[in-house]
Specification:
- The complex is a heterodimer of chains A (313) and B (428).
- Chain A is mainly α and 313 residues long.
- In chain A, 75% of the residues lie in helices and 3% in strands.
- Chain A is built from 14 helices and four strands.
- A two-stranded antiparallel sheet of chain A has the order 1-4. Chain A has a two-stranded antiparallel ribbon with strand order 2-3.
- Chain A is globular and about 55 Å long.
- By secondary structure, chain B is of the alpha/beta class.
- Chain B folds into two domains: 182 residues, 3-Layer(aba) Sandwich (Rossmann fold), CATH 3.40.50.2300; 159 residues, Response regulator (Rossmann fold).
- Chain B has an eight-stranded mixed beta sheet with strand order 2-1-3-4-5-15-14-13, with helices on both faces. In chain B, strands 7-6-8-9-10-16-17 form a seven-stranded mixed beta sheet, with helices on one face.
- The interface between A and B is large, with 35 and 38 residues.
Chain lengths: 313, 428
């Protein structure tokens, strides 16, 4: 019963997103497409942080791995859009595995610092190899290459539909993951690592696997960003892009499947509207986050689950 | 003294209405009477109001607003009033693309202009092509003329960096020295200088004997200065960002009061910074490139005087009402001039609405010259419709007594280089 209810909820959210397409203006179609891509990234972050308890400050590196694998694959090596979308998650997963092999020897604050340092090294590497990456200026992905067959992915509707497809796949896989035995083990690691170890689980391999899956999600989002929005630049690998998914997850609800999407949606439009009203929009964002921490520290869906809907995955 | 309210009687109202009607009928109203549509033309402005470009953004907004007043006072564009909608892009490329979409599709702007920072321009240009909305950038970057962008993106208001350094190189090699050490930030902006200036110096018989790249996160520079070769005759520096004051101060400490090479800098280093700031005394006697001289020169044109007054800048390049508020004078003229180019291209194309956007681009591509005057106070320019890039004169100024005095001006021919793209062959 509980499983059925949560499946219906997630399918209803997907149906609503699909039904919204003809109702949204061109501006919001592009925005929601971008939000869905960023939500995939945040979902990946949530797998590491929300479910496994790995507070990483280096996820921008995994996002950038997918972004640059796709962008440079297309611009330098003539990769197709489909090839880029496949290569992105592979690159993200690989980067996360390599970082995890070293960083997971640490925990807590040390893990945060080590992942932050890795991501900063990745960012500076992009700037260093400017001849290939065009550094801070970045690369424009030629419009002609942003297509699958005759479908132009730079047009509003196909872009939205592809972003939706990637988001839907990511969401349902995320739901399946957290309801699977491995998902329970991830949560066990978050809640009590010592006890999990005592029960026979190896924390290192569980966390490494979770981080790798998280990296696959981040890489997939990075590749989708490059292909759908046509720009690859170092600013998308900066520390800001490690903080953003954390904020999305905290706002929407850490350890909830729909939280990352809700957080990305609300944060995007909070910035959008606040920046039109005042140049101090980051103050508004900051104030909103402080209020959230004070009154709903588990995020919107986390609080909802605690008080009203304990079945929420 | 009494305050007497003016109470209109029926007679005065009728008289007024009759007079107004007659004036309308004779077409003597000064503004907007000829328009087929009285709807204002809406121009979007992608503004660096926050983020690393905020100092520029503040002045770009003031300059564009001043130009807008001049345009509207003279009857608008095609007889229609003009509005500018400013949207903050946070000097961020991802946000830049979003803001472009917002201006073009939510606010129904006819076109978007105003962006300066290269990464914002490059991040936004794909969106301009997707939406088929003209995007007129004020960036200096070589990315437009290099062919990297698209048919909808043009740079008619300011010369690109490749042209600028090519125009300056002869002055440096002929007047300051032929053995040059370059100090530049180790990212794309610095690399453009490294590559284009090195090539331009070589063409003049000079030699760049050291290329010292400073990592972008660096906050102290003393350890890089020993890399400057002893035989260096000129140090060419293009450091930008908040650390520039430290850079200059430490360079001064490195050389002390002894002999030092000539210094040649890029004004980007000191935009919005008072050149008389403590620690910058070391710059006295050094040379700077300026696109538009910050200090009003003795031979300033009438257009220059008019422009300064309209924007609210004093003779020292600071806000007329606040001498501490130093302008980004070398760059901000580009927004003023771009607005007048928009006006000219809209009038040449008979622009009426969004359906005429393509005609607008074609009309702009057909333009070739912009004469110096109130619409182009920085100076005359030639525009290359194939590369979408304008070419203007450049100034080289010397720091004398805490002020910049122009000692050389390039010609339009100095900055020309072969075309690298022909956007007019691309489809819309």
């Amino acid at each position: 019963m509980r499983d059925k209810r949560s499946l219906i909820l997630h399918l209803a959210v997907l149906a609503a997103l699909l039904a919204a397409l003809p109702l949204l203006s061109a501006y919001h179609v592009t925005n929601v497409a971008k939000i869905m891509v960023l939500a995939v990234y945040a979902m990946g972050y949530n797998i590491a942080f929300g479910y496994t308890g790995l507070l990483s400050l280096g996820h921008a590196m995994f996002f950038a791995a997918g972004l640059y694998a796709a962008g440079m694959g297309i611009s330098l090596f003539g990769l197709s859009a489909v090839g880029a979308l496949v290569l992105g998650p592979v690159a993200g997963g690989l980067a996360a595995t390599l970082v995890g092999l070293l960083a997971l020897r640490t925990a807590g604050v040390a893990f945060m610092i080590v992942t932050l340092m890795f991501a900063q090294a990745g960012y500076l590497t992009i700037l260093y190899f400017v001849r290939y990456t065009r550094g801070d200026e970045g690369i424009v992905i030629a419009r002609a290459t942003r297509a699958i067959g005759s479908v132009d992915l730079s047009a509003d509707t196909p872009r939205y539909l592809l972003a939706f497809g990637i988001f839907a796949l990511a969401l349902l896989l995320n739901l399946a993951l957290v309801r699977s035995p491995f998902g329970r083990i991830m949560v066990a690691m978050r809640e009590n690592e010592a006890r999990s170890r005592m029960l026979g689980y190896n924390p290192y391999t569980v966390k490494l696997t979770a981080l790798a899956v998280s990296g696959v999600y981040a890489g997939a989002a990075g590749a989708a960003y490059a292909v759908l929005f046509g720009y690859v630049g170092a600013s998308l690998a900066s520390v800001q892009y490690s903080i953003l998914p954390l904020l999305y997850v905290l706002l929407g609800g850490a350890g909830t499947v729909l939280g990352p999407f809700l957080g990305a949606l609300l944060m995007f439009y909070l910035i959008d509207y606040a920046s039109s009203a005042t140049s101090a929009y980051l103050f508004i964002v900051g104030a909103a986050l402080i209020l959230l921490v004070l009154f709903a520290p588990k995020g919107i869906l986390g609080t909802l689950r605690e008080r009203h809907a304990r079945w929420l995955p | 003294m009494t305050n007497k309210l003016i109470a209109p009687t029926r007679r005065t109202v009728l008289t007024g209405m009759a007079a107004g009607g007659a004036l309308l009928a004779t077409g003597l109203t000064p503004r907007f009477a000829q328009a087929q549509s009285s709807e204002p033309i809406r121009l979007g402005f992608q503004l660096h109001r926050t983020g690393i470009g905020a100092a520029y953004g503040r002045w770009y907004e003031r300059t564009a607003t001043a130009a807008l007043k001049v345009v509207n006072d003279a009857g608008g564009i095609n007889g229609r009033p003009v509005e500018i909608l400013f949207e903050d892009d946070g000097t961020d490329p991802a946000r830049g693309a979003e803001v472009f979409g917002k201006l073009a599709t939510q606010s129904n702007c006819d076109l978007v202009f105003g962006a300066l920072f290269s990464h914002v321009v490059i991040g936004t240009a794909p969106r301009a092509a997707e939406l088929k909305v003209p995007y007129l950038v004020c960036s200096e970057g070589h990315h437009v003329a290099s062919g990297m962008l698209n048919r909808w993106t043009l740079q008619p208001g300011i010369t690109d960096v490749k042209s600028q350094v090519q125009g300056m190189a002869p002055f440096v090699t002929q007047n300051l020295g032929k053995k040059i050490a370059m100090i530049f930030p180790d990212f794309a902006f610095g690399h453009d200088h490294r590559d284009y200036f090195s090539a331009a110096v070589a063409a003049q018989g000079g030699e760049v004997i050291a290329q010292i790249a400073i990592p972008p996160t660096e906050t102290t520079f003393t350890r890089y200065f020993p890399q400057i070769p002893a035989e260096t005759e000129v140090i060419y520096h293009v450091m930008v960002g908040p650390a520039v004051l430290t850079f200059v101060k430490e360079l001064g400490e490195f050389y002390g009061t002894g002999a030092r090479p000539q210094l040649f800098g890029f004004m980007d280093s000191l935009e919005a910074v008072d050149i008389a700031s403590p620690g910058l005394e070391f710059l006295d006697g050094s040379h700077f490139w300026e696109a538009h001289p910050r200090y009003k020169q003795a031979d300033a044109s009438e257009a220059e005087t008019t422009y300064r007054a309209a924007v609210g800048v004093d003779d020292n390049g600071a806000a007329a009402n606040d001498p501490a508020d130093v302008a980004t004078y070398s760059h901000m003229f580009s927004t003023w001039e771009t607005l007048f180019i928009i006006k000219a291209a809209m009038e040449a194309s008979g622009y009426q609405g969004a359906a005429d956007r393509q005609k607008f681009v074609e009309a702009l591509e057909a333009m070739t010259d912009f004469a110096e005057g109130n619409e182009h106070p920085q100076g005359a320019k030639t525009f290359n419709g194939k590369t979408h890039q304008t070419f203007g004169i450049q100034s080289i100024s010397k720091v004398e007594g805490g002020k910049l005095v122009r000692v050389h001006q390039t010609t339009l021919a100095d900055g020309q280089y072969p075309d690298e793209v022909d956007y007019t062959t691309q489809s819309f």
